[in-house]
Amino acid sequence: MAHRWKNDLTHDQVTPETLFWNRRQVMAGLGGTSLAGIAGAAQAETLEPNSWDEITSYNNFYEFGFDKSDPAKYAHKLTIDPWSITIDGMVDNPGDYALSDILSQMTLEERIYRFRCVETWAMVVPWNGFELADLLTLAGVQSDAKYVAFETVYRPEEMRGGRSSIDWPYREGLRLDEAMHPLTLMATGIYGKPMPKQNGAPIRLVVPWKYGFKSIKSIVRITLTDKEPPTTWNMLQPSEYGFYANVNPNVDHPRWSQSQERAIGGGLFAKRKPTLMYNGYDEVASLYQGMDLAENF
Ligand SMILES: Nc1nc2c(c(=O)[nH]1)N[C@H]1C(S)=C(S)[C@@H](COP(=O)(O)O)O[C@H]1N2
Ligand SMILES: [Mo]
Questions:
Q1: Looking at residue 52, which CATH number applies to its domain?
Q2: Residue 198 sits in which domain range?
Q3: Is residue 121 part of a domain?
Q4: How many domains does the chain have?
């Protein structure tokens, strides 16, 4: 990366102006041939992040309840230290990786990303984290691996929303090329502070061009596999939630339109804006060339 920095930014330091340059540097740092054509529009745009309070009080983390305010009320019970991630399946170096060991080998950077829930609400979040690709490289991905499966910790004694129709643990998955894409982040903080528990402490996935449910929280297991892994929302309601879940204004949810989104923080008359294809991250379009996105929703 052209510009990396430690996870010590304070809220006050993150002004819209620095955000603009941070994003430009991150984008410039992506470099490589496949990313040479990064949309000029995305680079030139200033993303105004949501406030700390907005990001940490309006959450989806069903292990702690179904109300948007439940995670902030109940996630404090989750024990996050010590924490380790089991990395297994088609890797050269399977095992339990202590989070502290992982972090000692990663350089954290800031990424200001749009975040779009399938329910149509949207935020802008200044994440701190590292590229998932760096962790997968550490584990040594074998050549026959095609997908990456993720699991959230499941501890009913610490998670009061656990009694529901969901088949815990919460599970998600990506195709290997999606997982290796430089936009795909393992996030450990927001606004330079450690990840709040309601947002998925101590470490979560962030895939900014997909609906929010793909961005699985509080990860304890990563499995490399050659089969498309089962995923929580798809298992629950396959006609409504697909494996890909790319943000797409042209493919509606069966029960509501996806053509517009609602910006959290817009006040009583929350701003409605057009939904952007791939949530504005056009640089991922090549991953889906030749695919029918209405069928692979
Ligand atoms: N383990 C787990 N991860 C999860 C969820 C969840 O319920 N459990 N909800 C998902 C959904 S639907 C969204 S929109 C985002 C919300 O992230 P946020 O609360 O940080 O905004 O987390 C995703 N990751
Ligand atoms: Mo969501």
A1: 3.90.420.10
A2: 11-288
A3: yes
A4: 1
Which pLDDT value is given to residue 266? 74
pLDDT band at 122 (very low <50, low <70, confident <90, very high): very high
Which DSSP string do the residues of the chain spell out, in sequence order?
A: ------S---GGG--HHHHHHHHHHHHHHH-SGGGTT--HHHHHPPP-PPPHHHHHHS---GGG-SSTTHHHHHGGG---SS-EEEEEESBSS-EEEEHHHHHHT---EEEEEEEE-TTSEEEEEEEEEEEHHHHHHHH-B-TT--EEEEEE---TTT-TT-SSSS-SSPEEEEEHHHHHSTT-EEEEEETTEEPPGGGTSS-EEE-TTB-GGGS--SEEEEEEESSPPP-HHHHH-TTT--SS-B--TTS-BTTB--SEEEETTS-TTPPEEEPPGGGG-GGGGGGGTT--TTT--
Residue 5, in any domain of the structure: no
Residue 4 domain-assigned (yes or no): no
Mean pLDDT of the chain: 88
Distance 251 CA to ligand 1 centre (A): 21
Name the pTM for this structure.
0.88
Ligand 1, atom 1, residue with closest C-alpha = 217
Nearest protein Cα to ligand 1, atom 16:
60
pLDDT at 191 over 60: yes
User: Ligand 1, closest atom to CA 119?
Assistant: 14
| The pLDDT value given to residue 109 | 97
Ligand 2 centre distance from Cα of residue 143 (Å):
32
